[in-house]
Amino acid sequence: MCFFTKILVRRIFHFIIGFVSDIALQVRNLHKTYGKIKALKGISFEISMGELFALLGPNGAGKTTTLRILSGLTTPDSGEIFLFGKSLLKNEIYAKTKIGFVPQHLNLDLDLTVEENLLIHGLLYNLSLREIRKRSFQLLELASLSDRRKAKVKELSGGLRRRLLIIRALLHHPALLLLDEPTVGLDPHIRRKIWSFIKQIQAKGTTILLTTHYMEEAEILADRVAFIFSGNIIDTDTPTNFIKKLGQIAIDIFFDGEMHTKYFHSKEEAEKALLEYSQKYNAITLRKVSLEDVFIKYTSSQNQ
Ligand code: ATP
């Protein structure tokens, strides 16, 4: 098969997949370098329609780079991205209309009101004034921000600003919402409110890709997670399966100035081990395994 026929067959394949499968996003072998830094070394993943998928990784792993490529802010060196079977990299306008991006850093206009921030965004996306008004009304309701519509953004708390940032990205009805560290810097109480808000958005049918390094956030919100380290995705699964594979129960033992954790698949095994350890050590805790344990396990194996 010649080169062009191969490309044509591949395009048709992705087009058909977009129609017959429930896959919303397909990312294939994405590479990105910044000078000598290899930020992405060929990552691939898929997200189903309506799914909430989380990219988890330490600082500098490549999470933001992935979202910036998907939102069209950066171009990859190579790779392919299909949204509902259509190439994103070759259809910039399609990408712009189908994707909503919420950056990590608040880029709202602080001196404008809540409504004015939404209006400017709507105009940038070529929405009619009527559509902007209608959509703003719905989204302000959803975000419980209706009574603050005339307030200047600088008068809002961090949590409300974050909610405004999220609804601004939803104004043009995107099918895929990208959230880069949606709760970074927020206190635990506000963080929980944002989690409920994100779940509400998903329940309305939006497919969501979020990045976070808060493991609890991913465990609570995500249907599936992918661990990304140094520009590579090393594993993808549901939070429950990741935890099951490691073990359901953990015992933390503190000795020699360090915490040592052992994992067990059954309560009986853990209780038996606890009896043995308690004869040797004083500082012992038995607890449930969390996604944070999985992350730490992966991080230590990557650093070895
Ligand atoms: P964080 O959690 O700290 O935001 P991240 O997982 O989002 O990290 P990226 O921001 O994607 O990671 O960065 C991946 C790598 O690429 C890092 O080594 C980073 O320093 C580098 N990098 C990112 N953007 C640029 C840029 N514009 N110029 C040069 N290097 C960059």
Which stretches are poorly predicted, pLDDT < 50 over at least 5 residues? none
What spatial order of strands do you see in the largest sheet?
6-7-8-3-9-10
Query: Can you count the helices?
Result: 11
**Structural class of the secondary structure composition?**
alpha/beta
The total number of structural domains is 2
> Any idea of the CATH class of the largest domain?
Alpha Beta
SS elements, strand count: 13
Examine the secondary-structure arrangement and name the CATH architecture of the largest domain. Answer: 3-Layer(aba) Sandwich
- Average pLDDT number: 90
* Beta-strand content bin: 25-35%
Bound molecules: adenosine-5'-triphosphate
Q: Please, what is the CATH homologous superfamily of the largest domain?
A: P-loop containing nucleotide triphosphate hydrolases
Briefly note the CATH topology name of the largest domain: Rossmann fold
